[in-house]
Amino acid sequence: MLDTRSDQAFVSFDRVQKSYDGETLVVKDLNLSIGKGEFLTMLGPSGSGKTTCLMMLAGFETATHGEIRLDGREINNIPPHKRGIGMVFQNYALFPHMTVGENLSFPLEVRKIGKSERETKIKRALDMVQMGDFVGRRPAQLSGGQQQRIALARALVFEPELVLMDEPLGALDKQLRETLQFEITRLAHDLGITVVYVTHDQTEALTMSDRVAVFDDGRIQQLATPDALYETPQNSFVAQFIGENNTLRGTVKTLDKDRCVVTLDGTGEEIDALPVNVKKAGDKTLVSIRPERVEFDPQLGETSHTLDAEVLEFIYMGDVFRTRLRVAGRDDFIVKTRNRADQKRLSPGDKVKIGWLPQDCRALDH
Amino acid sequence: MELPPYATLGQRVWHYTFLVICGLIFFFLIAPILTIIPLSFNAENFFTFTPGMLAFDPDAYSLRHYEDFFTNSQWQAAMWNSIKIAPVATLISVALGTLAAVGLSQSHVPFRRAIMAILISPMIVPLIISAAGMYFFYSRLGMQGTYWGVVLAHAALGIPFVIITVTATLVGFDRSLTRASANLGAGPVRTFFKVQMPLILPGVISGGLFAFITSFDEVVVVLFVGSAGQKTLPWQMFIGLREQISPTILAVATILVILSIMLLTGVELLRRRSEKMRGLSPG
Q1: Which residues belong to the signal peptide in this entry (chain A) (predicted)?
Q2: Are residues B154 and B241 in the same domain?
């Protein structure tokens, strides 16, 4: 899972470990290199170690082991105020006793930048986030979305090359979140800055990032582009965490290089699957199929096999229909079908046959 | 406070009883203070209302006790001693107390509860015990009977108030602000003065006020630690009661009451202003 794109990594974690209590590792052996100008998202459930990694990069936590490098320089022993990294905090962390202008002026004053240059930079930063008219307001007089724009402007005003974002949109409503997602990616690309973004929202991760590192249990489970992550998850955690996913339990019966046959638990039916993370015949496996890749009553030849299923629930969602089925003894199998004029609307109790292409059905670790 | 229309008889009785109790509490708190004010204008050398005063005879009132306070060299010396001691003790209390509160609010400090308990103990330990302890301690150091001895003793008494008020303000302090400040390039000292201090100022001011009043009112410790050269106003009042029985005390007391009210009002205004700055109440 090493990054091959950039030979000279701008940010790199080299065998980094972190433990708060000296016993349990919150981050276990992290290796990650981030290229210059890249938008990388650390995605994972809470407690997966993603925020700890960000805090180590910002300098608010120290790595127990390993080396963190920024632009070729080891930064483990550099205090946070000398790292020159911009950061947007989850709760904005605007200074409440200062106006918007004073908030933005703060990092510039620290850097001993002259008054006229400060004003030019502040104006440019506020215009970037469309908040030019708010220079004299206090944070308490702004809405959540406006405060987050100011926080973004403050992190950019001193022109850092690396900006960290710790779930910056977590407290905002859906519509505002989508607007800001778009604006943040646009700004990052226009300015050519490197962004490390932490979130637990997979949609956010997929829509914004160049690459996503999926964290769980203190390790990166998979590091890939958004489409690769969704289309070709490497293990069952990633398959479950990214997008909606159906899993069927089974045992590998035969294993070839690019085909395996899995005997499903419960009914003993046999299906073809793409071996991804199984080692030998006889292994237990979780087979993963995306809900939109399942066909009802497939034509023979289209799929290599069909399974019997019983409709348990049919949900009309506008653009798609969501059907819950009982398949191979499990009653949480979801199929999504587009709302087309000829699409049959099923009702609970209907017996149907389902099938899929063998390459859409991935045999993963259990 | 109005009774709801559905109040039962018992609730009505309790409602009025409660009002009477509140009134009595206020009366017992304020009456002793209020009576000294007219008494301090007594034309005679008495601590009681003379028949002339009760008849509102202008001749029964005078400013002679105030005149005595402002001309008598002993009272003047005491006043200047208090003015020299209290502000310096307050400054020390505020500086050390604020530092202690900020330090003890950080979770990585070991034994923080124990340290906090020790620092607050002067407030809990009976004053006479602190005073006796300080007497022996400062004697060993050669500071008994010196100006700095009294200042340090009063500072020690004031520190707990500052720690408590500042700690209370720090509870509402968002730690990500200091992180943001560091991230923007500010070192720890700049972060403290530019970000943390302005936001905890209301607590610092209230703590400073308590520390000042503690020093200004204090009589037990100064009796032990001080000598004739550090005779403060409360000490002189104590002597005035015991030896001279002069109503000048009443004049001094009135002045102190008015001073305290002014101080409290001033500090409250200041506190509201900085709270507004903090963005807690809409500007």
Answers
A1: none
A2: yes
What is the length of chain A?
366
B184 neighbourhood in chain A, CB within 8 Å: 81, 106-107, 110, 154, 158
Our count of domains for chain B comes to 2
Interface test with A, best of B184, B192, B278 (most A CBs within 10 A): B184
pTM, rounded to two decimals: 0.79
Q: What is the pLDDT of chain B when averaged over all its residues?
A: 88
Question: Are A193 and A282 within one domain?
Answer: no
What gap in Å lies between CA A305 and CA B184, rounded to an integer? 60
Q: Span B59-76, mean pLDDT? A: 87
**CA–CA dist A264, A270 (Å, integer):** 6
Hey, are the CB atoms on B279 and A97 less than 8 Å from each other? yes
What's residue A109's pLDDT?
Answer: 93
Cβ separation A93–B187 shorter than 8 A: no
Rg value, chain B, Cα: 24
Residue that finishes a domain, picked among A182, A210, A236: A236
Residues of A in contact with B177 (CB under 8 A): 93, 95
CA angle B196, B197, B199 (to 5 degrees): 70
Percent of chain B with pLDDT over 70: 97
* Burial letters B202-223, b for 16+ CB under 10 A, else e: bbbbbbbbbbbbbbbebebbbb
**For all residues of chain A together, what is the average pLDDT?**
88
Same-domain pairing of A280 and A225: no
Residues 6+ apart with CB under 8 A from B258: none
Domain that holds residue B198: 75-277
For position B189, what pLDDT does the model report? 92
How many degrees, rounded to 5, is the angle at CA A139 between CA A135 and CA A143? Answer: 100
Same domain, A30 and A154: yes
Domain that holds residue A281: 244-364
Question: For residue A152, is it within any domain?
Answer: yes
Q: Quick check: B183 and A154 CB within 8 A?
A: no
Do the chains contact at A93 and B185, CB–CB below 8 Å?
no
Residues of B in contact with A139 (CB under 8 A): 279
Contact present, A103 and A135 (Cβ < 8 Å): no
Q: What's the pLDDT tens digit per position in B145-179?
A: 899 999 999 999 999 999 999 999 888 888 899 99
Tell whether B109 and B46 lie within a shared domain.
no
Nearest CA in chain A to B175: A93
CB-side exposure of A221: number of CA atoms within 13 Å?
26
Tell me which chain B residues have a C-beta less than 8 angstroms from the C-beta of A89: 176, 179-180
